[in-house]
Write a structure and sequence with these properties.
7 strands, 29% helix, elongated, 7-stranded mixed β-sheet, alpha/beta
Length: 180
């Protein structure tokens, strides 16, 4: 059996392993090193000051715990994940270690052009039991990439529709005056 090509995506708060133990970066380091020791081909997506026997893909030289200009931190986390997903064709599995969300993300190659994207949410404060969302994704150079994004706080559509409704109301009011 051939070794798996695994992308292991670490949080970018600090290095892997961290300067102090007891964090998700420690767990990420132990899992990465264990997979390499078992003969798997692992690429660790982590900060440049990380130490690993895996291939290191450093999206940032250091983590946002050490650089207050790296804000909002969620953006840096998502861009680090995106760096792995952009290289998805190279990997059998993309695994994300997240200490900031009560969920885990996994991308698994189903074929040369299909990925299985799974998100498992395990938050006992919010849900009565863990649940998983799965969605197949198609990898294609011919198709455009559309962003999946939350639009909370995006007032562009609201403003466009408000303007259109105001124009429609003005036209209706004018029509009423003309018919009287």
């Amino acid at each position: 059996m051939r070794p798996l090509n695994i992308a292991h995506v670490a949080p970018v708060a600090t290095s892997v392993p961290p300067p102090k133990s007891g964090s998700v970066q420690t767990m990420t380091s132990l899992l990465t090193e264990g997979l390499v020791a078992k003969g798997q081909q692992v690429t660790l997506f982590a900060t440049g000051d990380s130490r690993t026997s895996a291939k290191l893909h450093a999206t940032y030289p250091h983590g946002y715990w050490h650089d207050e200009t790296m804000w909002p931190w969620e953006m840096y986390e998502m861009l680090n994940i995106a760096a792995a997903v952009e290289r998805a064709r190279e990997f059998d599995i993309i695994h994300y270690e997240a200490s900031y969300y009560p969920m885990s993300l996994a991308f698994t190659r189903l074929s040369p052009t299909r990925l299985d994207w799974r998100v498992t949410v395990d938050d006992p404060h919010t849900w009565t039991k863990a649940w998983t969302f799965a969605m197949p994704l198609t990898v294609s150079d011919e198709e455009p990439v559309y962003e999946y994004a939350c639009h909370e706080g995006n007032y562009g559509m609201f403003n466009l529709l408000s303007g259109a409704r105001a124009s429609e109301k003005a036209a209706a009011d004018a029509a009423k005056k003309g018919s009287n």
